[in-house]
Fold this protein.
Amino acid sequence: QVHLVESGGGLVQAGGSLRLSCVASGSIWSINDMGWYRQGAGNSRELVADVLSSGSTHYDDSVKGRFTISRDNAKNTVYLQMNSLKPEDTAVYYCKSQVLDYSGTRADYWGPGTQVVVSS
């Protein structure tokens, strides 16, 4: 079994910064894609950014230049540095990891989410 836990969410004023972390633990052989998604009130879950094991990254246009995704493969951890936050960034942020476990099974795992609230 694999578990993901996010941390770092909270309340911040517009223009401020937060750093989210997500640690994956359990029966992990390797992790390919690690990503951050968010879901605002009344909206569907959307991809914010993801990073491959090679280090290649992808960002949604709405966060380019403000957010930075990174990972520490040795710690099975992915980070999201969020700068210049806007009220529209308010959402529950989820991390997802594509994990290859010791049995050879590849599957996506999600964390429970961390709330980010940006006040104007």
The first strand starts at residue 2 and ends at 7. The radius of gyration is 14 Å. The chain has no helices and eleven strands.
